[in-house]
Write a structure and sequence with these properties.
The protein has helices at 16-25, 35-45, 104-119, 138-148, 196-208, 248-259, 318-333; strands at residues 51-58, 61-68, 73-78, 89-90, 94-96, 125-130, 156-159, 170-171, 173-182, 186-187, 216-224, 230-231, 234-243, 264-271, 274-275, 285-286, 298-300, 315-317. The chain is of the alpha+beta class. The longest helix is centred in the first third of the chain and has 16 residues, at 104-119.
Length: 337
């Protein structure tokens, strides 16, 4: 892929980690096309880390690990971004560009902290950069399997995501499903009708009213029917719930059965909630999902805010980016977690 153009009006004032982030933003790395950025970082990190490992994922794609000694602490983040590149730029407060917040800011901060730690003689830690996080987590799956084969086991993993530098210890699970109703195609002037869309609307109204504490429900996609004068023969909705509530599937199945409306209900995603107990960190649960689920002894922490991720003007605060380096370095220096 070609490098992105960049406006850099403040290049002389950018700190090393800010310059690194700008560098990474210039390398497009949409999910499925992470090769160039992984290769770029492999060359850079070889100058500080004795162990550089490309972890195969699929079709020539790979995650990247850089380590020293027997890593007890890992700083991890994903290299891929959502589609839709943005020109990288900076102003007095922020750095803009696709992935600046989610999560090249975390990548840059982890590298800067790691290189400082190596320069200070620190060992027994590593950097792990995954791919495919924005699609199917195939990179995290491969990286997790690779870690389990190592003779060493990390005691503390920091997954970089935009948390405003607050440590996240828990995340809601995700249940996604396809709900479909069928009817009989006919002229809409008929008094008696078998409408798929009417059936679907009735079921959705029931789901909207369910008492599910701490749960976020979303009707993501609606499709059905052909025209206003044709009774719909098919109707479909793609739904999702984000929750830590136990027994969600059973509750949904019971509610659907109680409607008495014929339907099919197919679960397409079932990701469990995650909660880590740490004596030094208070419980802090978020609704978005991260690679935390794939790594034991993990928390989530990074610069930026989830409200800016995937946005049309994605950015990360320059102050937070520099503070992230200091925080990550403290994590690396702390011997007992």
């Amino acid at each position: 892929m070609d490098m992105l153009s960049i406006k850099e009006p403040m290049s002389a004032k950018l700190s090393p980690v800010e310059q690194l982030l700008i560098e990474l933003l210039r390398i497009p790395s949409e999910s499925g096309h992470e090769g160039p950025i992984a290769d770029h970082l492999a060359v850079r990190l070889a100058g500080s880390f004795p162990l550089i490992e490309k972890i195969p994922v699929s079709d020539g794609r790979c995650c990247l690990f850089a380590g020293a000694g027997a890593p007890k602490t890992l700083l991890a983040a994903h290299l891929d971004t959502v589609v839709g590149q943005l020109e990288a730029s900076s102003d007095e407060e922020n750095i803009y560009g696709r992935g600046s917040c989610d999560t090249k800011g975390s990548v840059a901060a982890a590298i800067a902290a790691g290189e400082q730690a190596r320069a200070a003689g620190l060992s027994d830690f590593g950097l792990l950069f995954t791919i495919g996080e924005e699609t199917e987590f195939d990179g995290a799956v491969a990286a997790s399997a690779w870690l389990k084969k190592q003779a060493w086991r990390p005691k503390f993993v920091v997954v970089g995501e935009p948390t405003g530098l607050k440590v996240v210890t828990a995340q809601k699970g995700i249940l996604s499903a396809e709900l479909e109703c069928r009817g009989t195609k006919a002229h809409s002037s008929r008094a008696e009708r078998d409408s798929a869309t009417s059936k679907l609307v009735a079921i959705l109204a029931t789901l909207e009213k369910l008492d599910l504490p701490g749960t976020l429900f979303n009707i993501g996609v609606l499709a059905g029917g052909e025209a206003d004068n044709i009774v719909a023969a098919n109707a479909k909705a793609v739904l999702s719930w984000r929750t830590s509530l136990p027994g969600l599937k059973e509750r949904l199945e019971k509610a659907l059965a109680a409607t008495g409306v014929a339907h099919t209900f197919k679960i397409t995603v079932d990701l469990p909630p995650v909660s880590r107990d740490w004596p030094n960190f208070p419980k802090n649960e978020v609704s978005y999902y991260t690679e935390m689920v794939y790594f034991e002894n993990s928390v989530v922490c990074g610069p930026g805010h989830i409200s800016e991720a995937h946005s049309a003007d994605e950015f990360v605060s320059r102050r937070e980016l520099n503070d992230a380096v200091d925080l990550y370095l403290k994590f690396l220096k702390k011997e007992e977690k």
